[in-house]
């Protein structure tokens, strides 16, 4: 059976951030930690070796595939900072128009640094993602 790689762990979020090589990315990661914690009200948890997640939800697809994932999160990767929001939410695209300099993947939004984005829009994206996932997967 398929085993999810990205699971909540007991690893230290602070230790993980302190080990980010780039001082600028490390500083941005601490700022993001504050923004996500304050906005969601959830304590940060490590998901897998490199994703900092907030809250969680259980999903189940029509295919029968199911698992748990953070409601929102981020990861200060070498190339860019990955921000994780709900995939499939049409309001995300709307909010991203005013977000600032970024690129997108299926579930990720990539930024170079916090200075490139509108932090108020980031907070809206976080709130919208949590709301969307709680409505889509209400049985927690």
UniProtKB/TrEMBL annotation:
InterPro entries hit by this protein: YdhG-like
Domain called YdhG-like: residue spans: 25-130
Protein name from the UniProt record: YdhG-like domain-containing protein
Provenance organism: Peribacillus huizhouensis
């Amino acid at each position: 059976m398929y085993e999810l790689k990205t699971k909540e762990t007991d690893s230290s979020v602070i230790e993980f951030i302190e080990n980010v090589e780039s001082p600028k990315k490390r500083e941005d990661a601490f700022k993001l930690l504050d923004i996500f914690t304050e906005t969601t009200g959830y304590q940060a948890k490590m998901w897998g070796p490199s994703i900092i997640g907030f809250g969680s939800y259980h999903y189940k697809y029509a295919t029968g595939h199911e698992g748990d994932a953070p409601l929102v999160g981020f990861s200060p990767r070498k190339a860019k900072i990955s921000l994780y929001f709900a995939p499939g939410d049409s309001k995300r695209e709307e909010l991203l128009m005013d977000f600032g300099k970024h690129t997108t993947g299926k579930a990720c939004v990539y930024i170079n640094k916090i200075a490139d984005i509108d932090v108020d829009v980031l907070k809206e994206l976080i709130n919208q993602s949590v709301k969307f996932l709680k409505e889509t997967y209400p049985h927690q």
